[in-house]
Aspartate/glutamate leucyltransferase
Amino acid sequence: MSASTPQLRLFQSTPHPCGYWPLRTARDLVIDPDDPRLARLYPLGLSWGFRRSGNLLYRPQCPQCQACVPVRIDCARFQPNRNQRRCLKRNADLRWQVLPAARSDEQLALYQRYLGARHAGGGMDNHNAIDYDRFLLGDWSQTRFMEIRGPDQHGRDALLAVAVTDIADNGLSAVYTYYDPDCQHRSLGTYAILQQLQWARRLQLPHLYLGYWIARHRKMDYKRHFNALEAYDGQQWQPLAANKRAED
């Protein structure tokens, strides 16, 4: 930034319950939410390991815990492994489209079903339309909804998943994906990432940002199964170490 450009202001949140480990306390580093340059700062924030939640750009900064590791996939180097190729084959009957980020009743109903099944008692399972918009939409972000449709467990054509995705100059950011909890056999979370990678390649974007990888966490550890995965160590991005990828 030039001398005439206002300096970037960062704030540290007050301690709050960790969203990943129930017995831990977390703190976040937040870019000034009133900064009018947030749209322009977003690519830089992604490259520094920040994420978007609503209008906030944040990064975990917990004094005694470094479990949350920012990760991204190098789109040009990525090749699906055997299980991921099987996922694509198993879901060959699905179709997806990219839509403007505007909540529909159908999307909200699926979101609430997903939270009720996956996050029961976690504080998110009572989200309403206002909570949905506050969490997933941003006033300044270039956000799109990837809708995935196909036969549900009863064979009826239905909305099966939504991948909320931000478009930035340096890649796509996978903000949040929710899906039909009755279609576990389809591995829709994995399928959504594979299609986001194809989408990024079509846009000639170099990276797909996946947020935070947490080793041995049952809901966050899956990210290590994607090859060409890079991790941010606070100073630079580098391939996720082989010994980390192999952890159970």
